[in-house]
Write a structure and sequence with these properties.
The complex is a heterodimer of chains A (about 270) and B (about 300). By secondary structure, chain A is an all-alpha fold. Chain A contains twelve helices and no strands. Chain A is globular. The chains are: A mainly alpha (about 270), B alpha/beta (about 300).
Chain lengths: ~270, ~300
């Protein structure tokens, strides 16, 4: 058997490099990130085109409504692409359980936690690195299409207060929600379970709040994970939602709770 | 070097491994034998720290596996259940694992060639046949140049050429001074490769012995005697702890006496012998004999045990 001239110790950086190899070498990564980029950029372009062609037939009330939400048109893709990002986040960990790869991973890194940190770190970096240019391209494309209307409509220059933060914030939103979704995957260890839990928390529960008495709804809804995370890419906020900084801080708190639960379970459970 | 002491694992109410104490020494191939469901795979998962023992302890090279700074350099393992992402190529699978220890591409390619997966290394592992999957598993096990190699049922799914290759590889690894721990439910396979045996049944240790001693100790030595005066001979030699069966007229199978003793007794009484053959019980028979009561899932059959064994 050929000998190995050098077998080094396991370090966090090495585990991160390993996780980067894992992430880039499966097709689900390429497909979900491609989908996320496409939706993030494509949806605002589509909305801009539709808005531009119908602008002159809209009532003044509708036009004013669009104007108040003009930046939401540029970041609208994020509302859908978040699902692609979350699916990838869940799969990154649950696919290891469903295929048995997790046994090889934990044999190489028996302390286990470095694998979780590396997955979270590599995933966050890749997602943010890809989504940041995507949201800016989406913003510029959306604004350029609306600008080509005569006269230009719904313009929100980056120099306007809050606009720059909102555009960057939409990339941050996608990244932190991905982190939360990955923790769900690590806790549940099952692809269907992880994605279902994510969809329940982010897509099913928020509208369900409307069936509660409105005083309850108003008290609870701002604290729901999606509402707190969203505050980072909302241009304005009212009494029923958090300002960007406290909102994202609360969401990061949820992330820390979910990661802590995942870490404890990862260490304790048989594999 | 693997040392287990009082190793016990419960899954719910079921005890999969029950107070195992054994050690696996370097330099020889140690076979880990037991019927299906006897706790072999669980024991291996406990050694790697994939499962936590309910009681007891197991160490590799003096430490718990998880406390080693370069675990793949200590133990290389092939587990029975597949441990490969089906969507990733063999090359990237090995590379990702190698990178955790700072091991580079050269080593990965070296092992791909060693196990003969060169032509399919860039294919997704999900498309691999059982045999190719085993080869990838063995490459994974050898990646870190481990001092202990632990393989769970390595010949499963291999073709005859692959089985031959595995046998030689195991012997070679042991000759290099490594600890080689190989499980199987097939005694015959172990007979060809192992020098030492650890036998378990229903999670309990049944034997921890050399292969030679195992065969001698576990089976009664039988001598087949063919004689025209078989009935007379039977009366001559019959005694309290001697068992004589007759499979056909004129043929006796004697347990409890050596061929010399029978020959001398026959000569003394002027009995003609046409055949006097010591029958070496096969390793398989010794194994069956030893684990008969410990088989987890015994087939209900009308046939006598001897025929089941054959």
């Amino acid at each position: 058997m050929p000998r190995l001239d050098h077998a080094g110790r396991v370090t966090q950086l090495r585990v991160a490099i390993s996780e980067w190899t894992k992430l880039r070498s499966v097709r689900s990564t390429r497909w979900s990130l491609f989908t996320a980029v496409l939706l993030t950029i494509g949806v605002p372009c589509l909305i801009a085109l539709v808005t531009k062609t119908h602008w002159n037939t809209m009532s003044p009330g509708d036009q004013l409504d669009r104007y108040h939400n003009r930046l939401a048109l540029a970041t609208a893709g994020v509302n859908i692409s978040v699902l692609a990002v979350a699916v990838l986040a869940v799969l990154t960990i649950t696919a290891e359980y469903s295929t048995g790869m997790i046994r090889a991973s934990f044999t190489a890194v028996p302390k286990r936690l470095p694998v979780l940190w590396a997955k979270l770190g590599v995933f966050s970096l890749v997602t943010f690195a890809l989504m940041l240019p995507s949201v800016f391209i989406a913003y510029w494309a959306n604004q350029a299409i609306l600008h080509s209307h005569n006269p230009p409509i719904l313009q929100a220059p980056l120099s306007d207060p809050g606009v720059f933060r909102t555009v960057i914030g939409s990339a941050i939103y996608l990244t932190v929600v991905g982190i939360f979704a990955m923790s769900l995957g690590a806790i549940l260890r099952n692809t269907a379970g992880g994605i279902s839990a994510f969809v329940a928390i982010f897509f099913v529960i928020p509208p369900l709040m409307n069936i509660l008495p409105s005083s309850w709804n108003n008290a609870i809804s701002p604290y729901l994970p999606d509402a707190t995370a969203r505050s980072i890419f909302q241009l304005t906020h009212d009494s029923g939602s958090f300002a960007p900084a406290p909102g994202i801080a609360i969401f990061l708190g949820y992330c820390i709770l979910a990661i802590a639960a995942a870490a404890v379970l990862l260490r304790r459970r048989d594999t | 070097m693997i040392e287990a002491s009082g190793l016990t694992k419960n899954y719910g109410d079921k005890r999969a491994v029950d107070g195992l104490t054994f050690s696996v020494q370097p330099g020889v191939v140690t076979g880990f034998l037991g019927p299906n469901g006897s706790g072999k795979s669980t024991t291996m998962r406990l050694i790697l720290g994939l499962d936590a023992p309910t009681q007891g302890d197991v160490k590799v090279n003096g430490k718990h596996y998880r406390d080693h700074i370069a675990p793949l350099h200590e133990v290389g393992a092939l587990l029975e259940a597949r441990s490969v992402h089906t969507g990733r190529s063999a090359y990237n699978h090995l590379l990702a694992l190698a990178q955790t220890h700072g091991v580079g591409k050269k080593r990965v390619e070296e092992l791909i060639d060693l196990v003969g997966l060169h032509d399919v290394a860039r294919k997704r592992a999900g498309q691999f046949s059982l045999g190719m999957g085993q080869r990838l598993g063995i490459a994974t096990a050898l990646l870190g140049d481990p001092s202990t190699v632990m393989l769970d049922e390595p010949v499963n799914g291999l073709d005859p050429e692959g089985i031959h290759w595995i046998r030689n590889l195991l012997k070679q690894l042991a000759a290099e001074g490594r600890t080689v721990f190989v499980s199987s439910h097939l005694m015959s396979e172990m007979a060809l490769t192992a020098e030492h045996l650890i036998v378990i049944g229903r999670g309990k240790l049944i034997a921890d012995t050399s292969v030679d001693a195992f065969v001698r100790g576990a089976s009664k030595q039988i001598v087949r005697v063919r004689s025209p005066q078989a009935d007379r001979l039977r009366d001559m030699i019959l005694a309290a702890d001697i068992e004589i069966t007759s499979v056909e007229p004129g043929v006796l199978e004697v347990a409890g006496l050596t061929a010399e003793q029978i020959g001398e007794a026959a000569a003394e009484h002027g009995i003609t012998l046409h055949e006097l053959t010591p029958v070496q019980a096969s390793l398989e028979e010794a194994f069956m004999e030893l684990t008969r009561d410990d088989v987890e899932f015994q087939a209900v059959t009308a046939a006598p045990p001897e025929e089941v064994a054959a």
